[in-house]
Amino acid sequence: MKKLEIVGFKRANLGSKGAKDLRAEALAPCVLYGGKEQVHFAVPMILFRELLYSPDVYEVELNVEGDKYRAILQDAQFHPVNEMILHVDFLEIVPGSPIKIAVPIKVIGNSPGVIKGGKMVQKLRKVMLKGLSENIPDFVTVDISGLDLGQTVKVNKLSVEGCEILNPMSNPVATIDIPRALRGKLTT
What we know:
With 188 residues, this protein is mainly beta. It folds into 2 domains: 2-94, CATH 2.40.240.10; 100-187, RNA Polymerase Alpha Subunit, Chain A, domain 2. It is 13% helix and 45% strand. It has 4 helices and 13 strands. It has helices at residues 16-24, 49-52, 112-115, 180-187, and strands at residues 2-10, 27-33, 39-44, 58-64, 67-78, 85-92, 99-108, 119-122, 126-131, 140-143, 152-154, 163-165, 172-177. Strands 1-3-2-6-5-4 form a 6-stranded mixed beta barrel. A 4-stranded mixed β-sheet has the order 10-7-9-12, with no helix packed on it. The chain has a 3-stranded antiparallel β-sheet with strand order 8-13-11, with no helix packed on it. The radius of gyration is 21 Å and the shape is elongated.
């Protein structure tokens, strides 16, 4: 996983009024859980740009007033109208303990079905993995070089060393759709 450092400040006032005051100062209220104790802190919203608006998976090194924690982004809540960050949850990485995280899927290869005029449709953008943080890859690759018109690659064809795939094995990852113009030609 890629690494990213975020610096925060401990929160004195917990609750909705304290969170509202933080947001007015362009700070996002955050919580870190999963370790020995919960840590409530605030981070300038601008520091979340690379973490939230990227398809990549990051291991975050949180620096909360000198205390350092290894964590992953668990959840982020946004305002429904203006898209402002309302709250961010982090899960602490405990050495030797597995984590669950969604990892992006990267499609590689040239499909014979696409060369014949088909359209490759990626049905699944991320796959849920469970494993130790050091075993989590940046992305999972799917090779479509063997797919012809109308064929599909499913989750059961994916393999990630050292991790367990949590998605249903029958879910499609990528498929080669047959365009309407080719359907008539293929049946005759």
